[in-house]
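Lecture notes, unit on protein representations.

Consider one protein chain, 569 amino acids long.
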Amino acid sequence: MNKQKNTLFLIALVIPVFLATSLLVANQRQPQESRPSTLAGRSSVFAPHGMIATSQPLATTAGLNVLQNGGNAIDAAVTAAAVLCLVEPHMTGIGGDVFAIYWSAGEQRLTGLNASGRSGSLMTREELAERGFDRVPGSGLEAVTVPGAISGWAALLERFGTITLAEALQPVIRLAEEGFPVSPIIARQWANQTRKLLRDEGSKNTWLIDGERSPREGEMFRNPDLAASFRLIADQGPEVFYGGELGRKIVAFMEENGGFLTLQDLQDHSVEWVEPVGASRGNYTLWELPPNGQGIAALEMLRILEPYELMGMGHNSAEYLHHLIEAKKLAFADLARYVGDPDHMDVPLEHLISDSFIEERRALLDPKQAARRQDPGPAVTSTETVYLTVADAEGNMISFINSVFDYFGSGVTVPGTGFTLQNRGQGFTMEEGLPNTVAPRKRPFHTLIPAFVTHSEDGSDREEPWLAFGVMGGSMQPQGHIQVLLNMLLFDMDPQEAIDAPRFRHLSGLRIVLESPIGDEVRQALEAMGHVIGTEASVAFGGAQAIMRLPQGWSAGSDPRKDGMAAGY
């Protein structure tokens, strides 16, 4: 009897364990057998009057409040950008640069802004070599260029805004003084930079709790030094940064520690209003800013892909992805050779998207085989940026991007300022004789590229605004622009669906990475073409925001790869 009881007891014990083990094994197999087709399930946001999409909810809320209180798209964009400097400090800040494309409803036209800074007067190839560098370093004062963000914000507000810079800065000043809870993705990225921040005394004391660790998810973080810097700017205007009290503090630190910027460099800085450059697909035109940015690569990709029946290949099929990847290689080869400070480019911009040039480049695209390398050379990459977009009740739309380049830029925080200085000088090459060769008072190659799309009816020359969007993330930006745009144009996705859809990222040579929803059959077919697929674990696929104009009102999406959100009223 006891033996029978023991047997029943063992059976009762074993069966649940067996079932639990079977379920565990089944669950472990499931992601490989049936990957999800998208990264999220949220809907696009719809609103009748105004809309904003940013990579952090507090920034979205601040900008939305501006819209609801009568401000326009420019007012909301600058307010949100300032808040992002606080809540997403590893990505952006007033130590960085800004670019924008603005659709003015009153003027019925696009205007571009380039507010990137130049290298310091003391930055020479010879001096870098003397210090033992064979390339511009990725961190430290040698990589710092003039920050253009404050000048760009001020210029946008002065020309198109309805509020003052001081008014736009009030929300971030309050948040910086009172503190905010750090959001999850930002907390993880911040933690990964602890070692970098510990190397600089100013950064350690500004960005690490007790100078030792990064703030945890949900933990309150204050930045009184940044609040003080913003108060100075609000009280004295942008001049306080470009030669005034704040600028002198930066330059004094530079002189003491071997940096290349002078007070004259800050005083001579100015923004540039530019004409966006476009390339069409059907009745839609993609607009990018001209160099020193990499927007021309997105236009070249779009033009190379013109004659191919991409829709017939199927969304994210091996054939489809192969064509986009190979077009990217060709465009980035041209970036490396021809693009830099426009004052130093030796090939006209129009030539790079001309029919003859595109036909010659397209002829090099093998539809069956991955190219190991396309001449003339490799691409420059980095990943740390914020992108936001705003539309208002009058029909104005802005595509806006702000960055310190790498995570926390140069890693240098001038003590008492509350912000890091960008390492945009890393965008230069030390190879001699190129448009992007490092030199004094020169704009480096830039990865920042806001995008805009207009639409025209058949037989009409009139362009109407349709989409303001961007995909942050270094070299991911042009290839991300094309992927998101084609998702909408060819596969009829709404903004959120187009953003959620899995992406590829070409790294270099034959190396690509694919987000996990892309299935094994596609991966095997790409490998058969010669592509080498790496692991996605340590690779960023960008963070997109988008606002689309509807016949009445707006539709928007925000990337689940970030902490952000879209909101309207």
